[in-house]
Design a protein that fits this description.
The complex is a heterotrimer of chains A (248), B (44) and C (155).
Chain A: H1 11-34, H2 48-76, H3 79-110, H4 119-138, H5 144-171, H6 190-242
Chain B: H1 3-34
Chain C: H1 17-42, E1 49-50, H2 51-56, H3 58-61, E2 66-72, E3 77-78, E4 84-90, E5 93-99, E6 113-121, E7 124-132
Parallel strand pairs in C: 1-2, 5-7
Antiparallel strand pairs in C: 2-4, 2-6, 3-4, 4-5, 6-7
The chains are: A mainly alpha (248), B mainly alpha (44), C alpha+beta (155).
Chain lengths: 248, 44, 155
């Protein structure tokens, strides 16, 4: 029974997963029920508790992990870091998609539009496309090493755009709110602030949990791909040997 | 006021997460079975 | 199936020039994208002009469509044709706005910071879209924690 296949789960993922689940339940409780509506936005303010956390986790944490993984991979060719970078980018793209969608849904009742070509929205959309491109490169049918190297370079370049997203509201005139999270001048009701922090914790924990599972899946995929390659090479060697000069 | 935007937002985020989680875990389970035990490094 | 070749797998293709070239292509595309972004956003095409700038550059702007930011300083009035008229101000310069587009969000009111999109038409700015630029301040509705409390207020 010791060798029972359990997929990508383990003690570690179950612990992190339980924490993520509890935090998410608390987020739903506080974000949707216990926190008050905002004085002018009403209940639309509740989108804030998931919009900002998914953007922050995606842009800074997930894509930050992709950056670090890509740099290490280019330096020493570590398969581990290559796969970590790819796993983080996939979860990051998912979270950034959530940030864009919740942003649109929040923009309509507040700004009065789902979309406008504001610097922050535009740069975020470009980030989304870049990391989507990164994931596409990782799926190219190429020699695995060449593919991972290209992906790593793209991962590093794409992160520069994340820096542009971060400072877009300061560099350019923008419709988008600036950083709400400056603790020095937070102008927010306490229960709203608490809901927001729950949102942050829940998203971070969920990301960590997903990253573990996604990395392990990538590891399995990598092993199976290596097996296939080795089999293919062996098959070709076998073919070649039948044309040995000696046999003709 | 605003629930008509908030509810779809939460549904998309948590529904989307649920779908992604289900897909990832199922694929992990399926592929892990194809992998010989001695190559399951990082899996526990 | 079980006859596995145990010789170490060699890299299927040779390292060298082509790999570095492909590398640079991908890098170049990414850099180009970032460059375009910076160009698009730092050039004259700002997301919006402030009212004082838009007024000062009225002749250059002509009937070009652009966005203008200011604070609503007069109570918006809607005439029988559904056109809404109000005054916006920025840096002590006023501009008359005639809005003919879609209704703005519920947050639109006297004293709000808005970004209107449209063009100069005579002395007034004809707006097709009003965007409400709300602040980072979030205030609880009457400090009452129960959900649904806002319902009767928002009507």
């Amino acid at each position: 029974m010791k060798t029972e296949v359990v997929g990508t789960g383990s003690r570690g993922t179950r612990i992190v997963g339980s924490i993520a689940l509890v935090l998410t339940a608390l987020l739903l409780l506080f974000g949707l029920v216990l926190s008050p509506p905002e004085i002018s936005q009403g209940d639309a303010v509740r989108l804030f508790y998931i919009h900002v956390p998914s953007a922050v986790v995606s842009l800074y944490i997930a894509f930050g992990v992709t950056l670090v993984g890509s740099v290490i991979y280019l330096k020493n060719g570590s398969v581990f870091w290559d796969l970590i970078a790819g796993a983080a980018a996939e979860v990051g793209v998912l979270f950034l998609g959530f940030a864009l969608i919740t942003g649109m849904l929040w923009g309509r009742p507040t700004w009065g539009t789902y979309w406008t070509w504001d610097p922050r929205i535009t740069s975020t959309a470009i980030s989304f496309v870049l990391f989507l491109g990164y994931l596409a490169v990782r799926r190219l049918d190429l020699d695995p090493v060449a593919r991972s190297r290209r992906a790593a370079v793209l991962g590093i370049i794409s992160f520069f755009n994340v820096i542009i997203v971060r400072f877009s509201v300061q560099i350019w005139r923008s419709l988008h709110q600036g950083t709400t999270l400056n603790p020095a001048d937070t102008q927010m009701d306490n229960s709203m602030l608490f809901s927001f922090f729950l949102g942050m914790l829940a998203m971070v924990a969920t990301f960590a949990w997903l990253l573990m599972h996604r990395f392990r899946l990538a590891w399995i995929e990598h092993q199976l791909e290596e097996d296939r390659l080795a089999t293919a090479i062996a098959a070709r060697r076998g073919e070649a040997s039948t044309f040995n000069p000696g046999t003709i | 006021m605003g629930w008509q935007y908030t509810i779809p937002g939460y549904l998309i985020v948590f529904g989307g997460l649920a779908i992604y989680i289900a897909f990832t875990l199922r694929r992990g389970k399926r592929l892990a079975e194809q992998l010989p035990p001695e190559r399951r490094r990082f899996l526990d | 199936m079980t006859e596995i070749d145990l010789t170490p797998a060699v890299e299927p293709d040779q390292p060298g020039r082509s790999r570095i070239r492909n590398w640079l292509i991908v890098g170049g595309i990414g850099a180009l994208l970032a460059f375009i972004l910076v160009q698009a956003l730092t050039s004259a095409r700002v997301f919006f002009y402030n009212v004082d700038e838009a007024v000062a550059q009225r002749s250059e702007l002509g009937d070009e469509t652009f966005r203008m930011q200011g604070v609503v300083v007069s109570e918006p009035e809607t005439d029988t044709d559904g056109r809404m008229t109000f005054t916006v101000n920025f840096n002590e310069v006023d501009a008359q706005v005639v809005h003919v587009g879609e209704e703005p969000s519920d947050l639109f009111e006297l004293g709000q910071n808005v970004v209107v999109e449209g063009h100069w038409e005579g002395d007034a700015f004809t707006s097709a879209q009003i965007l409400v630029k709300h602040s980072e301040n979030y205030v609880a509705e009457y400090g009452d924690d129960r959900p649904g409390v806002g319902e009767n207020i928002s009507q």
